[in-house]
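Minutes, project check-in
Item: structure for the 343-residue chain
Input as provided by the requester:
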Amino acid sequence: MKQLLNTLYVQTQGTYIHLDHDTLKLEVERSTKFQVPLHHLGGIVVFGNVLVSPFLIHRCAEDGRSLVWLTERGQFRARLAGSTTGNVLLRRSQHSALDSGESTLLIARHLVAGKLQNARSVLMRAAREANDEGDRTTLTAAAKIYSNAMQSTEKAADLDKLRGIEGYAAKSYFGAFTSMVRTNRHAFTFTERSRRPPRDPINALLSFVYTLLVGECIAACEGVGLDPQMGFLHALRPGRPALALDLMEELRAPLADRLVLTLVNRGQIKPDDFIDRPGGAIHLTDDARKTLLAAYQKRKQEEVPHTIAGTKVPFGLVAHLQARLLARHLRGDVPTYQPFIQR
């Protein structure tokens, strides 16, 4: 099993990152501000104007260490890809499954089932914790829609119908999202999902965490030798990591959405932690991003029960386990792909 190592997030503009033997060093204005043994890091994420030495880039590519470039505000720009690894026969099986409508629908159906079950659990938990009867009613109604959607997935005859079921359920989920916000609701009211750019604080938080999560899922796919662009639920588009987005669906609600709600409801993220940008975009302040990154890293270390593994595993390893389970199905070792269900 892949060891869960720390991810280094570098936000300070003008930072220079380089290697000194096997130690990674961060310099600002030629003064060393931080250093860490490279083997302690599983990945590096840099924001905006952060320079990375060529030798560090080469070493990350050689070791298979994740290196991701984001804009200063957290939008994805690029990811280091080293030499192609993994079993070519596995990738051939992945492509063959995608050519089979029956195989594609089977995998997509289980991906959607996992997403629906986990989102329903988040709604039901929020309903139990709600102090307002109106919130409880709204959340319970959305959870009911998810229960019906879970039953409907078994009858979906094709991908379009399956995506329609998932989309309708997602609309009810986001329609009830504000009812899960208990602190500063006037500032964190959620109306609709907006991505490029995010139009309100909740969308800004969700988009930021989703960007981090999809990077983890790309690494999970590549770690077992799967092609992250060849997905089953998400449509194939140039440059789109469709398979990583597939795996991410099961983790959106229990990992990303609950993390955002926890930070807001505990007052760790406040209304003044956001900046209005031209064109209506909303971005997090530097301090807010630091708070979110620290919480995300801590969340990844938390252990959760994994039914298929039969034990508790760190949340940060779930995507890697799911990628392995998908690889086993594609190789024909198991008849179906089993999604991650948080209990």
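Outcome recorded: The radius of gyration is 20 Å.
No further action items on this chain.
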